[in-house]
Amino acid sequence: MYSLNVPVPGEVGRLASQLARDLPAARARTRDEHTLVVKRLGTGDRGTLQRVRPAVREALAGSPAFEARVAEVDYFAEAADGPSPVVYLPVESPQLRRLHDRLCDVTDPIEDIEGEAYVPHVTVARGGSEEAARRLADRAIEPVTWTVSELAFWDAERGVSAGELSLPA
To answer: Is the peptide bond between 85 and the residue preceding it cis, with omega within 30 degrees of 0?
Structure first.
C-alpha cells in the first residue's frame, strides 16, 4: 500500500512514545513508525505510484505550507482494521483535511477510514485494555504545533519513503 504522509516531528514522536509506556499490554509504535497519513493511494504494485504521483502533484498544486497541532489523547474502541483499542493523538488542521478531501478525488476513499470517516491522527499504540486506553485519553498533554512544509510518499509494504513533495506544491 502506498500513502501520502505528513512527516511527524520528533517532539510528537517522543510524546507518543512517552504515552505508550502507560499501555504495557498494547503494541506501541516505535519512533520511526509514527505516521500521519493524509491519504492512502493504492496497492503496493510499483505501477500504482508511477500512475498516481502526477495526479497527486496536480491535485496539490499551489497548496501552501500549513500548521498542524496535537493537543489531546483519544482512542478508537474498535479499529476498522487490526488490534483494538487504538490510542492516538488527534491532529488538528483544517488544511490537512482539505488536502485529504482533494486527494479523495484522485483515488477513491477507503470505506470506514477515509472520506467523511477520516480522523487525522498519530497512533500511539494498539491493543491492550480499553480501560487503560480510556485512562490515557483523559490525560492532559502539552500541545505541540508544527508547520507542515513537505509531504512524503510512503511504501508501507517495504517500509521506505518513495519520494517527497515540498509545500507550497
So the answer is: yes
- What b/e string do you get for 109-129 counting C-beta neighbours within 10 Å, with b at 16 or more? bbeeebeeebebbbbbbbbbe
Judge if pTM exceeds 0.90: yes
pLDDT tens string 65-76? 999 999 999 999
User: According to the 3-state scheme, what is the secondary structure of 56-95?
Assistant: HHHHCCCCCCEEEEECCCEEECCCCCCCCCEEEEEEECHH
Q: What share of the chain is helix, strand, coil (3-state, %, to 5)?
A: 30, 30, 40
Question: Is-contact 2 48, C-beta < 8 A?
Answer: yes
Matching CATH number, 2-166, of 3.90.550.10, 3.30.2130.10, 3.10.450.330, 3.90.1140.10: 3.90.1140.10
The rounded Cα 96 to chain-centroid distance in angstroms is 10
